[in-house]
Amino acid sequence: MKLTKKQETEILQVYDTWLNAYLNGDIETYDYYFDDDYHFIGSTNNEEFLNRKDTTKFFKKTADQLAGKTELKNRIKTIEFFEGLVFVTEFFDAYFLISKEWTYYGRFRFTSVLRQNKEGWRFIYQHFSMPDSKAQEGETLGAEQISKENQELRDAIRRRTVELEQKNRQLEIEAALERVRARTMAMQQSDELQDASLLLFQQVEALGIPVFGCGFNIWDQDKKFATAWMGGQERTQPPFKTDSSQDVFKRIYEAEQAGKSLFMEEMGGEALKAHYKYMNSIPIFKEIADKIAAAGQSFPTFQIMHCAFFSQGYLMFITFEPVPDAYAIFKRFAKVFEQTYTRFLDLQKAEAQAREAQIETAMERVRSRTIAMQNSSELAETSIEMLNQMQALGMRPWACGFNIFEKDEKAVTQWMSAVDGSLLTPFTTPLTECPFFIRISEARQRKEELFVMESGGHELEETYKYMFSLPAAKKALGDVMASGFEMPKFQISHCAFFSQGYLMFITYEPYPEAHDIFKRFAKVFEQTYTRFLDLQKAEAQAREAQIETALERVRAKTMGMQHSSELTSAATLLFQQI
Fold it and tell me: Are 314 and 252 in contact (CB under 8 A)?
């Protein structure tokens, strides 16, 4: 009888889970997979034909000697079926952590026999052994003529060969780490993590690790969500958000909070179906899944998720089978990425601070020009200063300026600068006739801070046709066309409202990163323009007081006249007061 693929998968999953427990000191899992009739023969003198109870008791005493200190390499595994019994045979090189260095110990042979009971596949017999180091190839026993010196030489050569292989492996790992380090060091924007995730996948795969996908998961500030930048075989994926309170991501979050450096979870059957059901509830991931299905590919029916944590998130590696040899590699990739990503964040912070200084300088120049205004006509010059500052900040506006509401807010007086930096003649535009301006008025009524409107085609043509029907606007826009510029065929109008009106920035292309800047300019202008209006009011009141005083003097003089001859002195006083 031959094992089915499903049976092989079940048996190997039991075998790998048990071996992982053995290597990590998990006594409960270690004992769980033993049959009551279990027996064991180990590689030391005191491990001879132990039963289940004695085997587990011995493991309790010695588990700390192996846990976290053992690595298996160059593994070769076979599985065979004989009359109800399954034989799993594995050969591997064992390395142990001795004095903080990984040291090659020797080649092991491990045989396990399993049979199926009502609980599933369970071990009934296991045997560890090592080759006789005294015997050469083709010999059963070492001949007496083999000298001690020759034996020591062969051992030294064998160990040296293994050490060289180990050092070569370390060089391969260092090269892979350096490639990922160099790519992340060169990042200018976060969306470059998409390409970096593909490179990470390629480097992990080149190291012989059977990986389905891997990538970077960056926490939000409160760690309630993480942005996943994942890559796979010849593909990159758009980033998507995962919820730290849902599915396996809750356990990942709890592992990070517990201070673990590596989280690992095996998923198959209904658990894996539930996981991908959650993932498909994320719209962006659903699109990714649909594309994978359309390409004739599918998601695994069994996978192991590994998450190596760093201060800002975790690297995720999804494999088809256990890869205990790769645990240390995953952690090293996380440490390397933490260093370069921290530097990237520092650079972003420095660039943001420099950008903020630019914005503050631009706003101060507009603020200073507004404060220096003596009358409203200077708004035109201030609009040119604002255009210059927008250009200094890297934007390419077609026009920008100030739109001041009439008292009833049914019309605005527009003080705009043109694309060539020239002044447009101020003009008044109703807000109740053209759909373009009606939408701006409605946004004002909704108390929006910033209203963004894209216009083009026939709609924009009708807007400019309407504006040319207004005599003052026709003259202003006609001056623009006379200087060699045409009206836009497409534009994006940004209206940043303040209490007395709105700033308008007309651009050819989207500037979502500038929306906050537009609102900040509006707030700055509101403060200075309010001050300007207050000064105008105070000056008007002072002027009115002067007029009243002059009138009172003339009134008093004329009231005190007794003869018409006194009109001459009254006329002199009137002249003086005027």
Answer: yes
Count, in order, helices (H) and strands (E) of the chain: 15, 19
Contact criterion met (CB below 8 Å) for 233 and 278: no
Token pair, residue 566, equals 């006194």
pTM surpassing 0.85?
no
For 67, the token pair is 């846990």
3-state secondary structure of 378: helix
Interacting residues of 495 by C-beta distance below 8 A, sequence separation 6+: 403, 440, 443, 450, 451, 452, 453, 502, 503, 504
Q: Which helix (H) or strand (E) holds 37?
A: strand 34-41
Cβ pair 324, 72 in contact under 8 A: yes
Q: Angle at CA 236, nearest 5°, toward 232 and 242?
A: 85
Q: Which residues of 439-469 are buried (b: 16+ CB within 10 A; e: fewer)?
A: bbbebbeeeeebbbeebeeeebeebbebbee
Confirm if 82 and 111 have CB atoms less than 8 A apart. no
Tokens of 167: 């050092």
Tokens of 356: 């903020």
Query: What is the spatial distance between Cα 480 and Cα 422, in angstroms, rounded to a whole number?
Result: 9
- Euclidean distance between CA atoms 127 and 111, whole angstroms: 5
Question: What φ, ψ does residue 491 adopt, rounded to 5°?
Answer: -155, 160
pLDDT in tens, 15-60: 999 999 999 999 999 999 999 999 998 877 666 768 999 999 999 9
- Could you give the CA distance from residue 197 to residue 216 in angstroms, rounded to a whole number? 7
Helix 515-559 to helix 567-577 angle (10° resolution) is 170
d(CA 240, CA 249): 13
Helix-helix angle 457-468:471-482, to 10 degrees: 110
CA distances from 488 to 436, 458, 460, 477, 575 (A): 14, 12, 8, 12, 57
Summarised one tens digit per residue, pLDDT across range 74-92 is 999 999 999 889 999 999 9
The tokens for 286 are 């659903």
Dist. CA 175–CA 530, nearest whole Å? 63
List the Cα angle 387/390/396 in 5-degree steps. Answer: 90
CB 379 within 8 A of CB 426: yes
